[in-house]
Design a protein that fits this description.
Elements: H1 2-5, H2 19-35, E1 37-40, H3 46-57, E2 69-70, E3 95-96, E4 100-102, H4 112-118, H5 120-130, E5 135-136, E6 144-149, E7 155-158, E8 165-171, E9 175-176, E10 179-182, H6 193-200, E11 208-210, E12 217-220, E13 226-229, E14 232-233, E15 238-243, E16 245-246, H7 255-262, H8 264-271
Antiparallel strand pairs: 1-12, 2-3, 4-6, 5-16, 6-15, 7-13, 8-12, 8-15, 9-14, 10-11, 10-13
Helix pairs in contact: 7-8
């Protein structure tokens, strides 16, 4: 499986303990430390990418649109709750979100994307990059997603709930759909609302662009870096996989988030399953 999916000729995932592997890992660590991100073009083979994209297109009709206007902090549902703040404040400022997501339970387990997500090769790779154990997320809906953007689709400026986000672009649009980010704009001790406000107002010099190509794997520290996807231009969909990994074992997402992003069917399913973890 790894030899058929991952481009190991370009990226030494199968020989990380070699001199070449260690040099490469150091480069990735430096990029993450400096920019909060690193991108690996042609991470999967041409044949694998073609099949992955075809398999993804076959289930895009299952994607749920979720909320259409949210703040940069919409994963932190109660941040700023009870505070009297103007609508222009980052905690109250809503941006357009035009995308739909296919939840984990709707992605066939025998698809190449699912195989990649479950592979030990990815676990070993990410653990080596972060220099600590990494685990696959366990959530039945959030652990592996396919993001679908049609023409005009976009994602508002936002922060992620997790510190490390792993994505794979399966299909690029005809135009637009550019990934923009302001690296390390906040920290655990400082939300830095002034700098966030400048980004939202379009007057920040901290914003960087990354025009991703299909087949590119991205590692991104989205918890601290504000980021968005610009509107898609053209009829070809922008398809991106979000592969859930964590440095904590047994990670589940919040049921509240799953219902919001994958629809009322999730609430109906979990109402009959008392074993589903309600918080994490």
């Amino acid at each position: 499986m790894p030899a058929q999916i991952v481009n190991t000729e370009r990226y030494p995932l199968d020989r990380l303990d070699s001199k070449v592997g260690e040099t490469w890992l150091n480069q990735l660590r430096a990029s993450l430390h400096r920019d909060g991100s690193c991108t690996l073009p042609d991470f999967v083979t041409t044949q694998a990418l073609q099949l992955m994209a075809a398999q993804a297109r076959s289930i895009t009709h299952l994607a749920y649109p979720g909320p259409t206007e949210v703040t940069p902090y919409f994963f932190n549902y109660r941040l700023g709750e009870g505070e009297s703040l103007p609508d222009s404040h980052p905690l109250r400022r809503k941006g357009k979100r035009r995308l739909a997501q296919v939840a984990t339970d709707l992605i066939p387990t025998d698809s190449l994307l699912s195989q990649l997500h479950r592979s030990g090769l990815m676990i070993d790779f990410l653990s080596s990059v972060l220099q600590q154990p990494v685990y696959r997320n366990c959530d039945p809906y959030q652990s592996l997603n396919i993001s679908v953007m049609d023409e005009g689709g976009c994602q508002q400026w936002h922060f992620d709930s997790g510190n490390m986000v792993t994505t794979l672009l399966l299909q690029e649009p005809e135009g637009g759909g550019v990934f923009e980010y302001a690296p390390a704009i906040r920290s655990e001790t400082d939300e830095n609302f002034t700098a966030v406000q400048a980004v939202l107002d379009g007057r920040s010099d901290r914003v960087m662009q990354n025009r991703l190509r299909a087949g590119t794997l991205s590692l991104f520290r989205g918890h601290y870096s504000l980021h968005r996807v610009t509107p898609v231009v053209g009829k070809r969909q922008r398809l991106q996989a979000i592969l859930g990994f964590s440095t904590s074992p047994g990670m589940y997402g919040k049921l509240e988030s799953s219902i919001l992003h994958y629809g009322p069917r999730v609430a109906a399913i979990e109402a009959s399953d008392p074993l589903y973890p309600q918080a994490s």
